[in-house]
């Protein structure tokens, strides 16, 4: 049941995009962890650059999208840059479409 | 956004003056008309645009909020009033307006107030985490203080107030004022901000601290030698040649080190396809390199003093203005996206930042602008003042096209209709940003 809720939350987060890269944050690998205990959701996520002005909107967007999923009582977002995000976290098919260099 | 709109308005004023043939090259470099033109460009256009960009990006550089959001608008008001007063004073000096020379010190006081607010606000913000690019901003702000101090002294001297010391500084100190402003304040700050912007938009690793520190040290030393050494030389009445030669060598070294850092950023990028703002920034880097080369050739041929106007024009309009315009194109799109679509993220599908712009259409205006600047530089070297006016007209056409694109971005004119206004999104105001 919890796993299904995590999957539904993950799907819901696909509406949130990184404005620069133009793809959803799940395919870009921004979401490190989604955990649920009794409807209380904790999402650990990152962004491409610390200090980016879009971070606040990414956090709010993720919280907003997760809160709309039936079964979610509360959402706690943890923004972390440890480990830092790298393009290697992007889904391969999306990475190819973005024209990235070979990931190192 | 208000800073950018005001800065662009002043740039149009400057281009109109150049097309009309007011100031250099039609008039002498030190003439009141040239002083009007130079200060419209350096304060109205470049400094106001740089301040606007720094209010956005210093918080990004240090990952901390601005010391005070509230100071930005009063600072813009003081800068605008101060510049208007200063220009009226210059026009009075040239006999185009009544000779109310008190307008010059009044303008200086207002500009000291405006730049003072900017320096304290940005300085206290950058001081929180003075690493990497933030250090460039701090050195740039210190140079701004030196520039403003020289300028204020000149303004009071023109009004006949500080006596013989002021006269001495005014007679010899103009190059120091220009080096502190164009070299220290505008160039070092632009370099610092460009490191972060290029890395961010190309997903490239930040330049190693050791390398950027070396570049900054060379640049800071160049400005310090010029300003402090220059004051000592004026004091000792020994002439500025030695001091300016040392500063020039250090300036060239700074440009070369900056070039090395840029190559590192470009070669380490993860994103291979370059956006328009980056491609156009490359043309400004090429202009900086060309200005350095032109300076060396002019010095070696003993023609630098005769062609200092051409050298400065290329540095100001090719390097600094080109970079500011290229980044402005991106910054406006990014801010407009944050303002319009940031608040509805997670609730509705949103476009990308790139969906707010039409790069293929915008690129031709940038190319027209750069070609006009390079052509204008050649006309100055060749001493063809009438052809220079044609180059200025061509620059105006390019700028008008770029501004049209920026206005289309603010109006979301290029966003697909289905994505333009998701539920809850508000249309951005043309001149004021809510985010």
From TrEMBL, chain A:
Domain of life: Bacteria
Matches recorded under Pfam families: FeS_assembly_P
Coiled coil regions in record: none
Domain MIP18 family-like: 7-76
Leader sequence residues: none
PANTHER family according to UniProt: FE-S PROTEIN MATURATION AUXILIARY FACTOR YITW (PTHR42831:SF1)
Name of this protein: Aromatic ring hydroxylase
Native source species: Bradyrhizobium icense
């Amino acid at each position: 049941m919890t796993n299904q809720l995590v999957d539904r939350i993950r799907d819901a987060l696909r509406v949130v995009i990184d404005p620069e890269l133009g793809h959803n944050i799940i395919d870009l690998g921004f979401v490190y962890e989604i955990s649920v205990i009794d409807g209380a959701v904790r999402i650990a996520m990152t962004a491409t650059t610390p200090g980016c002005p879009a971070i606040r909107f990414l956090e709010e967007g993720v919280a907003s999208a997760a809160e709309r999923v039936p079964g979610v009582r509360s959402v706690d977002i943890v923004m972390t840059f440890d480990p830092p995000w790298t393009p290697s976290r992007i889904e391969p098919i999306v990475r190819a479409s973005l024209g990235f260099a070979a990931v190192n | 956004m208000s800073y950018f709109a005001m800065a662009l308005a002043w740039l149009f004023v400057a281009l109109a003056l150049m097309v009309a043939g007011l100031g250099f090259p039609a008039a002498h470099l030190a003439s009141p008309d040239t002083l009007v033109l130079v200060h419209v460009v350096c304060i109205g256009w470049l400094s106001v645009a740089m301040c606007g960009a720094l209010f956005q990006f210093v918080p990004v550089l240090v990952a901390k909020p601005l010391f005070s959001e509230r100071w930005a608008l009063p600072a813009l008001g003081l800068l605008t009033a101060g510049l208007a007063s200063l220009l009226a004073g210059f026009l009075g000096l040239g006999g185009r307006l009544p000779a109310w020379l008190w307008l010059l010190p009044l303008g200086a006081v207002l500009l000291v107030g405006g730049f003072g607010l900017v320096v304290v606000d940005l300085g206290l913000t950058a001081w929180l985490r003075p690493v990497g690019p933030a250090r460039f901003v701090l050195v740039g702000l210190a140079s701004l203080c030196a520039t403003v101090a020289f300028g204020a002294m000149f303004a009071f001297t023109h009004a006949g107030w500080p006596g013989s010391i002021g006269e001495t500084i005014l007679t010899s100190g103009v190059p120091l004022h220009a080096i502190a402003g164009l070299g220290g304040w505008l160039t070092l700050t632009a370099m610092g901000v460009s490191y972060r912007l290029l890395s961010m938009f190309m997903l490239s690793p930040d330049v190693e601290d050791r390398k950027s520190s070396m570049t900054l040290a060379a640049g800071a030393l160049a400005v310090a030698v010029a300003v402090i050494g220059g004051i000592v030389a004026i004091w000792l009445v020994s002439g500025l040649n030695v001091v300016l030669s040392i500063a020039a060598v250090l300036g060239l070294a700074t440009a070369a080190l900056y070039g090395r850092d840029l190559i590192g950023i470009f070669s380490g990028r993860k994103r291979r396809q370059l956006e328009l703002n980056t491609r156009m920034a490359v043309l400004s880097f090429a202009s900086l390199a060309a200005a350095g080369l032109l300076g060396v050739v002019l010095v070696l041929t003993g023609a630098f003093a005769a062609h200092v106007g051409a050298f400065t024009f290329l540095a100001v309009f090719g390097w600094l203005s080109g970079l500011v315009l290229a980044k402005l194109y991106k910054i406006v799109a990014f801010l407009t996206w944050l303002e319009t679509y940031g608040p509805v993220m997670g609730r509705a599908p949103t476009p990308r930042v790139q969906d707010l712009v039409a790069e293929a259409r915008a690129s031709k205006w940038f190319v027209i602008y750069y070609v006009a600047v390079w052509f204008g530089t050649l006309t100055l070297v060749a001493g063809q003042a009438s052809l220079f006016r044609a180059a200025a007209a061509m620059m105006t056409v390019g700028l008008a096209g770029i501004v049209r694109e920026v206005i289309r971005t603010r109006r979301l004119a290029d966003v697909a209709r289905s994505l333009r206004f998701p539920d809850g999104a508000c249309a951005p105001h043309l001149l004021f940003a809510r985010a």
